[in-house]
């Protein structure tokens, strides 16, 4: 098969196995270049195949020599259709981890279900005994609740009032105005059910009851705050309500972890191009402007640079500074005064005509296609290759 990108809205329906492998290798090389981290040794990553979860898994394995179990929801290939990018990423990670002598196990299934939780616990008991870290990095449009059987769908909407602002179609570069109607009470509740902290709490509770948490255990989940410009659609919107819930869950989990001297953290991360963030209106335009400013200042980071700082300079450093709300901040460079000062004037002026001079739309697009293994100079995209790639032993 000759594999080219095929996009539908903000998703790409194809992925390139060799390109995804290069993308993973670049992240492994980056982590190795930063030297070893005195970090965790037995790590469970929930949402391990793309974005922040994959970068965290790479940081744990190749920075700290950790054994990792990765959970994800991805599609394998058929003769006629490529696998999803996260499948190829995991195949590449697994191969490199095993070549480096690192334990790697993979579970493809619905992390919200009791079945996957039980399966994971069995594997931990059999292979690792206990885990000393859990990274919780799910981004999902829906969740079937394991107790009620109800499927909740998340929405990205403002709350209270309609919200009007600029947005971009990042494929065509057309800047337009979008008005988004506020979410109903049910939509807010559903989004909190999907992206809030209930499932994180259920995971840690299940792992604790099974006696598989190491003394000094740590767990981390990810949040975002961002500037005032995006507050209506993010922080004060449905997703922000879910993140508020996630923060409360971190406190509830920490309270449950006393016996093992454990702690749950929320890390506030930088806005980045991932499959999840490209689905949010307004945010891709903000990210394009942000990329330009941060690159000019030499402050630009991707998921792997963020994961590297999270592990080496925050979670496993000698002194961990938290903000007034008890959160880890690795959005510190994004939120720096001199970075944010540049955003607002560009935002006010930006149009379809001046998009390339005021933003790094090319950088946004290039990162988007890299998520699916496209745009790597090492790869000849005219080659006829098999889309079928195995993840040995995947459950
Ligand atoms: P992503 O889409 O790249 O990754 C999501 C992961 O979740 C994938 O591994 C996917 O397979 C897995 N997944 C989804 N549904 C699943 C299910 N039912 N069962 C098992 N696995 C499932 O997303 P991301 O952007 O890396 O987001 C991860 C976290 O980071 C989210 O909490 C997000 O809000 C947060 N975050 C993202 C940004 C950003 O700009 N991208 C910024 C700050 C915080």
UniProtKB/TrEMBL annotation:
Residues 2-79 form the Trans-2-enoyl-CoA reductase-like NAD(P)H binding domain. Pathway: Lipid metabolism; fatty acid biosynthesis. The record marks 74 as: Plays an important role in discriminating NADH against NADPH. The keyword Oxidoreductase applies. NAD(+) binds at residues 47-52, 73-74, 110-111, 138-139, 243, 272-274. Involved in the fatty acid synthesis (FAS II). Catalyzes the reduction of a carbon-carbon double bond in an enoyl moiety that is covalently linked to a coenzyme A (CoA). This is Trans-2-enoyl-CoA reductase [NADH]. It comes from Pseudobacteroides cellulosolvens ATCC 35603 = DSM 2933. The lineage of its organism: Bacteria, Bacillati, Bacillota, Clostridia, Eubacteriales. The gene is fabV.
């Amino acid at each position: 098969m000759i594999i080219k990108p095929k996009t539908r809205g903000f998703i790409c329906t194809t992925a390139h196995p060799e390109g995804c492998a290069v993308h993973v290798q670049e992240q492994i090389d980056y982590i190795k270049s930063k030297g070893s981290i005195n970090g965790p040794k037995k790590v469970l990553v929930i949402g391990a195949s793309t974005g922040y979860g994959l970068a965290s898994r790479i940081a744990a394995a190749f920075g700290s020599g950790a054994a990792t179990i990765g959970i994800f929801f991805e599609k394998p290939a058929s003769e006629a259709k490529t696998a999803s990018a996260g499948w190829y990423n995991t195949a590449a990670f697994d191969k490199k981890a095993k070549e480096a002598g690192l334990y790697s196990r993979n579970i493809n299934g619905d992390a919200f279900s009791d079945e996957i939780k039980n399966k994971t616990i069995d594997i931990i008991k059999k292979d690792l005994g206990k885990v000393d870290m859990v990274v919780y990095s799910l981004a999902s449009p829906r969740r079937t609740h394991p107790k009620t059987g109800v499927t909740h769908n998340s929405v990205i909407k403002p709350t209270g009032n309609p919200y009007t602002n600029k947005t971009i179609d990042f494929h065509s570069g057309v800047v337009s105005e979008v008005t988004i109607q506020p979410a109903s009470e049910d939509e807010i509740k559903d989004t909190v059910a999907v992206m809030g902290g209930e499932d994180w709490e259920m995971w840690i509770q299940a792992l604790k009851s099974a006696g598989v948490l190491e003394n000094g255990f740590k767990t981390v989940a990810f949040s975002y705050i961002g500037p005032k410009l995006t507050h209506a659609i993010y922080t004060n919107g449905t997703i922000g309500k879910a993140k508020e819930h996630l923060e409360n869950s971190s406190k509830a989990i920490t309270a449950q972890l006393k016996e093992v001297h454990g702690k749950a953290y929320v890390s506030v991360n930088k806005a980045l191009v991932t499959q999840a963030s490209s689905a949010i209106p307004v945010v891709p335009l903000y990210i394009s402007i942000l990329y330009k400013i941060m690159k000019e200042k030499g402050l630009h980071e991707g998921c792997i640079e963020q994961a590297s700082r999270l592990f080496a300079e925050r979670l496993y450093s000698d002194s961990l500074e938290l903000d007034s709300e008890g959160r880890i901040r690795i959005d510190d460079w994004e939120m720096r005064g001199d970075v944010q000062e540049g955003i607002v004037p560009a935002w006010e002026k930006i149009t379809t005509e001046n998009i390339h001079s005021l933003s790094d739309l090319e950088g946004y697009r290039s990162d988007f296609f890299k998520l699916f293994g496209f745009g790597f100079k090492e790869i000849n995209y005219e080659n006829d290759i098999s889309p079928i790639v195995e993840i040995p032993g995947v459950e």
